[in-house]
Design a protein that fits this description.
alpha+beta; four-stranded antiparallel sheet; 10 helices; 9 strands; 50% helix
């Protein structure tokens, strides 16, 4: 359970007035699930570098997987603000939990729904939505991170099937996945998406170990050595980098909401601790420097909440642009990691202990600030947009 009273979660600019009753009900149900299921076991999972048992099926049971996918394909048919609120509550628990839901929703279910055939949608989406099936997303490679256009993974048309070769790296859920949506170049040099299934000969998923970050999540590689891919497993309705980049836009939007949850967890913990910790005969909350930190935390959280809410409104209206999403992802992750680090100082030595979330969130956010577009690249995306000059 949370160290702080749940009613202290901040809404300084009355953002709840802009939400529907359905939004608030969804948020409350996910919040209660995080408090009862994630909070009691997340420290042990992170400390011992092990995944949370049955996480995907649990996420499926609360409707957190592909919530904006239509009900006919197993989703809940919710709007984008609902998706954002779900991500916020999951990451208040841990970035690994939000990452699992984010990858499944935005990087696996989204491309199958947007670019897949009707047969693919009906075959995979309901099982992904329930968590019965776990998916992963293969774009980043050992030699190509911020430059996916230079990917080396490729496939050849062999007549009755495709032959896939290459490798992907830093893949969430790779060691656990049942399917992987993999982006590779055809013989014409154009990028296409293929659905690779566990058990296909030549497909392996070695685990990445010794991580200091996202320790409650499995990370690994996707390795393809002459993997025969049935032709019906190619995503028929997209060609080029537009496919994977549109997936990343959906995921980055969810991240912009999710990291607010991590920041809230750190802020609420620091606020509660500062009121209880007595030094020099009075609570440390009474000292100016601690109040400065707390006031700045709340200000930055409030700004991030308003930014993501507005972005959600734009996404619901199909008006959100990739550059707007880049700005929100970059700003909000930096906000969250700064709060995680500074709030640790309020707790002094206790801030490094597993009983409190600051170090865990700070370590997790070191991954979040890098994946799905690094902090620097997102800055250059904004710079390119405002100057018209591409700096990379």
């Amino acid at each position: 359970m949370s160290y702080y009273p749940i009613h202290t979660i901040p809404d300084y600019f009355l953002l709840d007035d802009l939400l529907t009753e359905e939004h608030k009900l969804i948020r409350q149900s996910v919040r209660e699930w995080v408090n009862s299921f994630i909070m009691p076991q997340i420290d042990d999972a992170a400390q011992h570098h092990k995944e949370i048992p049955n996480l995907m099926k649990e996420l499926g049971s609360i409707g957190a997987l592909g919530p904006y996918i239509p009900e006919e394909y197993g989703g809940a048919g919710l709007d984008q603000i609902s998706y954002g609120l779900i991500m916020q509550e999951l990451e208040r628990g841990d970035s690994a939990v939000r990452s699992a839901a984010s990858v499944q929703s935005s990087l696996v279910m989204f491309p199958i729904y947007e670019f897949g055939s009707e047969e693919q949608k009906r075959k995979y989406l309901p099982k992904l939505a329930s968590g019965e099936m776990i998916g992963s997303f293969g774009l980043t490679e050992p030699n190509h991170g911020s430059d996916p256009g230079s990917m080396e993974t490729h496939f050849k048309d062999m007549g009755d099937h495709f032959l896939l070769n290459g490798a992907k790296m830093w893949i969430t859920n790779a060691p656990l996945c049942d399917i992987a949506v993999v982006w590779a170049k055809g013989e014409d040099g154009k990028v296409r998406g293929l659905i690779v299934e566990r058990g296909m000969d030549g497909f392996t998923t070695p685990e990445t170990i010794n991580k200091w970050s996202l320790r409650a999540s499995k990370t690994g590689e996707l390795v393809f050595r002459d993997v025969k891919i049935p032709k019906e497993n190619i995503l028929p309705n997209v060609t080029g980098l537009k496919g994977p980049l549109s997936c990343l836009n959906s995921a980055r939007y969810g991240i912009s909401w999710g990291v607010i949850g991590a920041a809230i967890d750190c802020y609420c913990t620091a606020l509660q601790y500062s009121k209880e910790r007595i030094q020099f005969g009075k609570p440390i909350a009474s000292f100016q420097l601690q109040q400065k930190k707390l006031a700045e935390f709340l200000t930055e959280i409030t700004k991030a909440q308003l930014l993501s809410w507005r972005l959600g409104v734009l996404k619901n209206a199909h008006k959100a642009t990739p550059v707007q999403i880049s700005m929100a992802k970059r700003n909000n992750v930096k906000m969250a990691i700064d709060i995680a680090r500074e709030s640790r100082q309020i707790l002094g030595g206790m801030g490094i202990m597993g009983e409190f979330p600051m170090m865990r969130h700070a370590a997790n956010l070191e991954s979040v600030i890098t994946y799905e577009g690094t902090h620097d690249v997102h800055l250059l995306i904004t710079g390119n947009d405002i100057t018209g000059i591409n700096a990379f």
